[in-house]
Amino acid sequence: MIITVDEIVQSTTGGFAQKYPHFKEFQTAEAYFPYWKLCLQALQDRDLLGHIIFCNDLFGIPPVKTFLCYFAPQLQEITAREDARLDDFVKKAIGAVWGYVFKVVFSYAQQKSVSVSLNRMFMVKTATCYLQPQKTLVLAY
What we know:
Helices cover 57% and strands 19% of the residues. It is an alpha+beta fold.
């Protein structure tokens, strides 16, 4: 499957709130806009997205962990905390974004929760790793 970053962003912005109505506010509320913007920034960066997929597929590192570690400085700034501690809603919403991308956009069939040990920063203990992609994925611009 060849998919462009624009198609990924369009699918996510158009379908996320319908698939996960509990997290609609994450996409629409001004308070959460900085986090939503970071998610979209990650989806628009073909190289970063390739690394996120690679880490998930080959090393079993959940997309949320790669995303949080990559954007740690920005998240420290957004939260105004050195440990970038995220509230429960934000942690779950970010997880839902990556769940949407991997399950709906990329068609991964399975998932499993794994320990990520991000307790010094973000206060995230577990995150989801995605398994069994149903198609070979090629990212394009």
